[in-house]
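May I ask you for just one protein sequence along with its backbone structure tokens in two labelled lines?

_____
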Amino acid sequence: MSNVLLKIAHLRIVPALVIDEPLDATELAEAMIAGELPCAEITLRTPGALAAIKLMSRVPDMTVGAGTVTTIEQADAAIEAGAQFIVTPGFDAELCQHIADREVPFIPGAVTPSEIMAAQNMGINFVKFFPCTLYGGLPAIEALSGPFPTMKFMPTGGIKAENVHGFLSHPSVAACGGSWMVRRQWIKDGQFDLVTESCQQTMEIVRRLLRR
């Protein structure tokens, strides 16, 4: 596993960000670092996403990736913008191979046994389980961990402060993705103090798990 993916597994949380105004990216990164959560997956769902990745990737100690990557062209653009890892919502062997050839860490989406087998056959041992709640949530991950004991999952979609503890407690879950700690409206309104506070609260959940 690459150093970037190891950092994600260490933090246990990957905030999925929707950024409307790229100029918010630097201050947002600083707020997240202050909240002890220096990692972000910027989703390619807004016109300014690539510019936000470029700005945020320049902030020291911040690990920045691109999410919602569905094409080779998007992957290349994100990498050129400075993305340190790539997250895809589903599994596409050609896309995965292209990102691997560019030597950039990535987390592909995989929720069915067939998709997980395809990922495993490519040497991938860390996948995104999305949309988590629609595909069975924690019981589904528990069932899949039987035939795939070495696969690590990053459930995303329906994860929130109230249930993240249960997911992180499962040995097959390396990290959880979500947006509850960095809400889109907070970014729009410039409420970065709320981002810092929410990130701190989220990381306290992780610390409580580590103390068990």
